[in-house]
Amino acid sequence: MQFELNERAIDATLGTLRKAATSLKAHDYQWRIAQLDALFQLTEDHEKAICEALKADLNKSYTEAFVTEVGYLQSEIRHAKKHLKAWMKPRKVGTPLMAFPGKSFHYPEPLGVIFIMGAWNFPFQLTIAPLVAAIAAGNCALLKPSELTPKTSALIAELIPQYMDKDAIAVVEGGKEVSTYLLAQRFDHIFYTGGETVGKIVMQAASQYLTPVTLELGGKSPCIVDKHCDLTVTANRIVWGKWTNAGQICIAPDYVYVHESMKDAFLAALRKAITSQFGKQPQNSQDYGRIVNSNHLARLSNYLEGVESIEIGGEIDAESLYFAPTVVLNPPLTSPLMQQEIFGPILPVLTYDSHDQVIDMIGSREKPLALYLFSSDEDIQQRYLAQTSSGNMCINDTLIFMTNADLAFGGVGNSGMGRYHGKSGFDLLSNLRAVMKRPFILDVFIRYAPYNSLKTTL
Ligand code: NAD
């Protein structure tokens, strides 16, 4: 789909948003609640249309689209509404003796206009969830959904102006050309979700105005299966985490490390879990997604070139963008499959002898977005907590941690910067203004010049 760059229209939209950002209107509690209510209403009134757009763009089943996008956002909005009053309150902090009598606070205030660039794998949720945080914090926002999922992008552009305050929240559709133009404009914060390459472009563009950025990126998220685990539950949870949305999830387990002695049992458990979740022919399953487009299908097919150890799957149907749930055993660590983020339905399974070997390997690579450990041994849990680093960690499960709005979600190092969801999103898009209030009494003179010897000895 071709998008036109209409610079005049964008400039006019940005002018309107900036004006609204400088008015007090957007700062007010009632305005924020009204916008959150309107957003909730939008998701309720158009649940079916949103799920249909996600079906058209990514073949998401209705249930998956509801749970991971619409329903997910509804609970994020409910959570924000429930806690908004408390989040907005000035936060009292201590005051040192030097400033006695006095009081000190952090006053959360809006930043201004937030530019939100969404990604295509959860094209509704990843564009709207940052908006929930932006509204809660009293900001105006410009949304740019991903061009790779055009049905969802068009629906967002159609619905947002129908429900939200048009002066404060706007949508611009487009691809690289539009993004490039937008990134050259002045914003108060840029919230980008996507890959590392564009992440660097965003950060470079933001430096022109010293605009703060949030980068929600990806990476190779490891999953370790220790000897002390329930293999059936482990396999079910890994299959769910890996093959929801056909593996196109930033926090999907990218590869699994399983103890050498459990290799065969683990592969058998994986096979069983794939069949029980998607049937013997995943291509016929209503619940198995498709690859977003032929470029990504070709990228993923290339990973399998020359690979001999395909244990499960491997079938591809280019016409319907189908890529089977695929498991590859022990690919070389130097292969593209083990060097690049897979972001698709291929799961490399590697075997290990000792946890030292796994921890060293993880430590030698960029810090991942998520790390999964399946082990009931608390010492092993503690070792991975202490000796590895990742944006997020989930012990004995996979994607489920995303349902907790109290957990601040984000990356570290190459997997991103900045955290959101719940209060962390509110704080991220607020200026926590430091305020000290002092009375006129007790004006201790020794701090003023001239600094004579009496004062310095005090
Ligand atoms: P994408 O292609 O949808 O790009 C994201 C945005 O960047 C789009 O709005 C697009 O218009 C813009 N863009 C693309 N090329 C550009 C250019 N040259 N200049 C300026 N803007 C440009 O997303 P993607 O990168 O294919 O997404 C996949 C990646 O996103 C994976 O690495 C995945 O792990 C990551 N991801 C991270 C999260 C998270 O929350 N951390 C969530 C989803 C995806």
From TrEMBL:
GO terms for molecular function: aldehyde dehydrogenase (NAD+) activity. GO terms for biological process: aldehyde metabolic process. The keyword NAD applies. The active site is at residues 216, 250. One of its GO terms (cellular component) is cytoplasm. Residues 7-434 form the Aldehyde dehydrogenase domain. InterPro entries: Ald_DH/histidinol_DH, Ald_DH_C, Ald_DH_CS_GLU, Ald_DH_N, Aldehyde_DH_dom, Aldehyde_DH_NAD(P). It holds the Pfam family Aldedh. Belongs to the aldehyde dehydrogenase family. It comes from the Bacteria. Keywords: NAD, Oxidoreductase. This is Aldehyde dehydrogenase. The lineage of its organism: Bacteria, Pseudomonadati, Pseudomonadota, Gammaproteobacteria, Alteromonadales.
